[in-house]
Amino acid sequence: MRSAEEMVQIFRKMGYKITPQRMAIFQILEGNTSHPSADDIFKELVQRHPSMSFTTVYNTLETMKQIGAIQELTIDSARRHYDPNTETHHHIICVSCGQIEDIFTDYSSHLVVPEHIKRNFEIQNHQVQFYGLCSDCQDGRSN
Q1: How many whole angstroms separate alpha carbon 66 and alpha carbon 45?
Q2: Using one digit for the tens of pLDDT, what is the confidence trace for 19-72?
Q3: Which of 26, 31, 60, 122 is disulfide-compatible with 7, CB 3.0–4.6 A?
Q4: CA 13/CA 28 separation, integer angstroms
Q5: Is 12 helix (H, G, I), strand (E, B) or coil?
Q6: What pTM value is reported for the model?
Q7: DSSP secondary structure string, 29-41?
């Protein structure tokens, strides 16, 4: 996970200006484990930065994704979520409220890729996703 200050340095090296809006996005993502969507980030920042546009948030996230500073999670077909932790890890998603939690267990010894696929693909990464009900939804506290 990169800090906001590391992101500033990376963006500057790439020739991007560091605007207050970009800095705010970097700060929101620093240490964030909630896997926010672009809309979540926009809603949180527009109060403090009235000139913030959704396009700014989305484009900044896309740039961060392209340089490998965040992972894009396509868990919810309606919207993408972003994870600033780019280390290999997995997720568990509540099918009722959509809560996403990280799982840091290494499952690689349990995953078997068929030989015919390994001949045609160079595997670079993997991710396991589990789906279930969080404790709040099990107890009827959510939704």
Answers
A1: 22
A2: 999 999 999 999 999 999 999 999 999 999 998 999 999 999 999 999 989 999
A3: 26
A4: 21
A5: helix
A6: 0.80
A7: HTT--S--BHHHH
Helices vs. strands in the chain: H and E counts, helices first: 6, 5
Q: Report the C-alpha gap between 138 and 108 in whole angstroms.
A: 30
Tell me the two tokens of residue 12.
Answer: 């500057």
Quote the CA–CA distance of 63 and 53 in Å, as a whole number.
16
As given in the structure block, the two tokens for residue 4 are 């906001």
Please check whether residue 90 is in contact with residue 127, taking contact to mean a CB–CB distance below 8 angstroms. Answer: yes
Question: Cα angle at 107 between 135 and 71, to 5 degrees?
Answer: 75
Q: Is residue 134 within 8 Å of 142, Cβ to Cβ?
A: yes
Choose among 125, 128, 61: nearest CA to 87. 125
3-state DSSP assignment of residue 34: coil
The set of residues, in sequence order, having a beta carbon less than 8 Å from that of 123 and lying 6+ positions away, is: 113
Q: How far is it, in rounded angstroms, from Cα 130 to Cα 22?
A: 32
